[in-house]
């Protein structure tokens, strides 16, 4: 992810949108060629960011550039992009409210990471939940440890 962030040259909003796309992909339950393991997670990440960049930003690098950033071939990048788009049902639009909800989840996770990195700042803060689930149909962000809900850790 650090390599993608360093070389993708996209707006910060693209990472929020990519996160929402990954959540949609998980909710739809279709992964196709995007089977995820420790050796292929970068393929899923670069594909989600590529889709977000193309949808959100006015100017972006081409698929060849993103393939090099992700360490994959251009034909594979093209295939993953198409498979990803089918996986999310070509549903790339996010309402401002949904975008705000995903921003809030990511900001919360960043705060949690900062608190974990500096435990003295969290003294007396009490216990907190590590899992956040977000439904685009809800009006507010939902936090739950229920095993029936899809979870995505960025």
TrEMBL record:
Keywords, sorted A to Z: Cell cycle, Cell division
One GO process term, biological-process aspect: cell division
Presence of keyword Cell cycle: yes
The organism's place on the tree of life at top rank: Eukaryota
Recorded GO MF terms: protein kinase binding
Alphabetical list of Gene3D superfamilies matching this protein: Cyclin-like
InterPro entries, alphabetized: Cyclin-like_sf, Cyclin_PHO80-like
Pfam families per record: Cyclin
Family, similarity comment: Belongs to the cyclin family. Cyclin U/P subfamily.
Name of protein: Cyclin
Organism: Arundo donax (Giant reed)
């Amino acid at each position: 992810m650090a390599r993608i962030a360093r070389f993708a040259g996209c707006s910060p909003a693209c990472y929020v949108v990519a996160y929402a796309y990954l959540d949609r992909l998980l909710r739809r339950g279709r992964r196709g060629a995007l089977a995820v393991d420790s050796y292929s997670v970068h393929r899923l990440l670069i594909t989600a960011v590529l889709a977000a960049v193309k949808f959100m930003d006015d100017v972006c690098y081409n698929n060849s550039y993103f393939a090099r950033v992700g360490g994959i071939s251009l034909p594979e990048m093209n295939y993953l992009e198409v498979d990803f788009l089918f996986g999310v049902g070509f549903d790339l639009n996010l309402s401002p409210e949904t975008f705000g909800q995903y921003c809030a989840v990511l900001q919360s996770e960043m705060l949690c990471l900062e608190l974990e990195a500096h435990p003295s700042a969290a003294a007396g803060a009490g216990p907190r939940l590590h899992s956040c689930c977000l439904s685009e149909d809800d009006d507010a962000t939902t936090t739950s440890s229920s095993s029936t809900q899809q979870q995505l850790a960025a």
